[in-house]
Amino acid sequence: MIVFNLLCKTCGYKFEGWFEDTSSYNSQKRKNLVNCPSCNSTEISKGLVAPNISKKSNTKDKKLKKTIASNISKLKKIVEENFDYVGDQFTEEAKKIKYGEKKERAIYGEASLEQTKELIEEEIEVVPLPFSSKKTN
Asked: What are the backbone dihedrals phi and psi of residue 37, each rounded to the nearest 5 degrees, phi first?
């Protein structure tokens, strides 16, 4: 995982984006999947957020990995405790909420790249999670 500080060139809003790697960011940016949470613009610039890690010591690498894993675990716990899991019905539920067919609430689940593009085209805000959202019962 890599975290970028992102800046909206349209409204100046600063936010973070989590991506698997730089090529994932570039691919999503080319496909207009990276957008401003404030104004929904796709005119976004990035800057890397990461400490300079020396390869001389594995201790720093282990501490960094442990910190990142801990933060992702905390985020996952917050999402699972406060959001409704809708599984592969995410796209349909998000649309129903957007168009007033269902009560507004925070949801998470699965969506394909095509489904995500569809939601963005309908101006429905989505945020990729830095962890697998599949629940096991």
From this structure: -70, -15
Q: Give the chain's residues under pLDDT 50.
A: 52, 137
Residue from 73, 16, 62 nearest 2 by CA = 16
Q: How, if at all, do strands 14-19 and 84-87 pair? A: unpaired
Place of tokens 């790249």: 113
- The model carries a pTM of 0.52
Determine if residue 73 is left, alpha or beta; phi over 0 gives left, psi from -120 to 50 gives alpha, anything else beta.
alpha
Give the residue extent of every domain in the chain: 1-50, 77-127
Integer Cα distance of 116 and 98 in angstroms: 14
Alpha-carbon gap, residue 98 to 114, rounded angstroms = 18
